[in-house]
Write a structure and sequence with these properties.
By secondary structure, the protein is α+β, with helices and mostly antiparallel strands. The chain has 7 helices and 6 strands, in the order H-H-E-E-H-H-E-H-E-H-H-E-E.
Length: 186
Amino acid sequence: MKHKEAIVSTELIASKIYVIRGLRVMLDRDLAQLYEVQTKALKQAVNRNINRFPEDFMFVLSEQEFADWRSQFVTSKSDKMGLRYAPMAFTEQGVAMLSSVLNSERAIEVNIRIIRVFTRLRQMLIDNKGLRRELEEMKRTTEDRFQIVFETLDQLLKVEEHPKRKIGFIAKESREGYRVQRRNRK
């Protein structure tokens, strides 16, 4: 079993998870590769058991989704990535259902690994939401504190903007030379 785990690494599985329609999904061709079956065989097994795959378990990519997905990869036009038809996209629940449809030891072992990766991704998302909330709270409290600092600075600057009354004497030149005059206070 350790040998098979090395073949199907967490990183490999995670790299095959896409976000389509706001859902994390895996495509039929990637799952077939992981299960070591032909994509055609996987699709046939799903179509024979289609009632096990409601829309929230599996859906076929629309033409636009298919075009968008294919445009992410640089391939020659003749290759078309080996796809003639839009792929099936399987959610976490759909992937779990596949093991019962394919019914092989490899499918069961790979599904366990895939479900663990989906679970880990979900936990990371939950952790990130908590972290994001904490950051927003820190940002808000920091902004409140800085607001006080900025208001204080504004008050200090306003005081500086008002001309200060000058006190003292100034020298003024006259015909007789310099003479000292007292400034008028206003």
